[in-house]
Amino acid sequence: MLSIFLLIPLSLMLFVVAIWAVRYAVKSNQFEDLDNASQRIILDDRQERRQVMQAQENATATQEVKEAHDMTSIEEHSSKLNNVDIAANPLSDTDKNSKI
């Protein structure tokens, strides 16, 4: 009989704590998506891997475009230098030899 006086209030307190825990879980959206929760971990890894691969591809493409631009600039610069040489020396070597 003495144990009933202890167990009834203890069980009521435990019941109140359990109801509070369930209510807290529902309010914090713990039960929102039960079907896809187990797949979310796998999908997040795949999505992260995809983002890393896209970032690497973009960096490679940017580097290739930069190198192509640098090569074009070098070619343009060398062609300008050739044009300047021709403008500075309009006579070619054969023309110079024929005048001498």
TrEMBL record:
InterPro entries: Cyt_oxidase_maturation_cbb3. The gene is ccoS. Residues 64-73 have a biased composition (Basic and acidic residues). This is Cbb3-type cytochrome oxidase assembly protein CcoS. Pfam families: FixS. Residues 53-63 have a biased composition (Polar residues). It comes from the Bacteria. Residues 52-73 are annotated as: Disordered.
